[in-house]
Predict the 3D structure of the following.
Amino acid sequence: MVNYSDPQLTRVFSAMGDPTRRAIVARLAGGGLTVSQLAAPFEMSLPAISKHLRVLEGAGLISRRIAGRTHHCNLEAAAMKSATEWLEQYRRFWEPRLDVLGEYLAETENTEELHDGECKD
Amino acid sequence: MVNYSDPQLTRVFSAMGDPTRRAIVARLAGGGLTVSQLAAPFEMSLPAISKHLRVLEGAGLISRRIAGRTHHCNLEAAAMKSATEWLEQYRRFWEPRLDVLGEYLAETENTEELHDGECKD
DNA sequence: TGATTAGTTAACCATATGGTTAACTATAGC
DNA sequence: GCTATAGTTAACCATATGGTTAACTAATCA
């Protein structure tokens, strides 16, 4: 069951609501980076990046391995799973082929009508 | 090309970052509702709901048809599409079967290796 | 040991967010 | 026309967010 008050979901969506953080995630998709490497292309102070990293870490979207004085960050994309699943509940609203009736027809190949599908919450 | 600074993406993710707004979206998935009907189950004032509706409207996630003094709200789930696509770029990171190599193998049925896929940004 | 480097923490600031109550607009109904 | 209803707008408040600079901690290196 999808719980709309799930604080983890809230943290992930909120984290993704910031363009800088989406850019950080996009950079990390290319492989792990240190904080300085990560920060380099941004026109923003290191403390600002540090804060963004804390937010991403709090959402479980990145992990950190500390080696000496350098912090290596890695993408933990699995944290996006719940957010993706939440959004996908609604996919049938913009892709009619994926609606409940469509799924049913695809499976059974008959025209019997289904109840109007409701979304999990 | 996915643009991480896309303000529309920012509005959609930010809108979804609030549990009340996710609950509103979930309710509207069951069909259009007036503002009062929508607000009924929430322990929150009507103006608070009104604000949330404005945010959802600004993100393109709901539409409004005004009939007399009642406002009928409808889900516009298509606005979720860009957010879903953004997240799905990263699906291969938590579902190895959907990685670039996996897709390639599924299509060609051979074992030739591919370059490490990068994420669009 | 002393200087440099990596990164965080602290203190601060401006603005945004999420809520409230009170007042308002406008439609509906008697 | 008066009153009730649907909903917004305004004003306000507390806290969160996103940024800054300065100070700090700790590791590296000459």
About this structure: The first strand of chain B starts at residue 33 and ends at 34. Chain B touches chain A through 39 residues (CB under 8 Å). The radius of gyration of chain B is 20 Å.
